[in-house]
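Review session, final week

We close the course with one last complete record, chosen because it touches almost every idea we covered. It is AlpA family transcriptional regulator, a protein from Homoserinimonas aerilata with 59 residues. Go through it on your own first, then we will talk.
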Amino acid sequence: MIGPVFTVKRAAEYCGIKTQTLYNLKAAGKGPKAYKQGRLTVYYPADLDAWLAERLVAA
């Protein structure tokens, strides 16, 4: 993928969840797709959008 990436803190803000929740979801294998850039874990906005869309529940 090409484009801007979000840090864990920014990705959590974007998704409306706490940073620790995002870490916990990643550890459980239930979070959005994450990538490593050196020591940093980063997320692409498109992956966050896809993950959020699959979590939608019909009312």
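Two points worth writing down before the exam:
DSSP finds three helices and three strands in the chain.
The radius of gyration is 11 Å.
Good luck, everyone.
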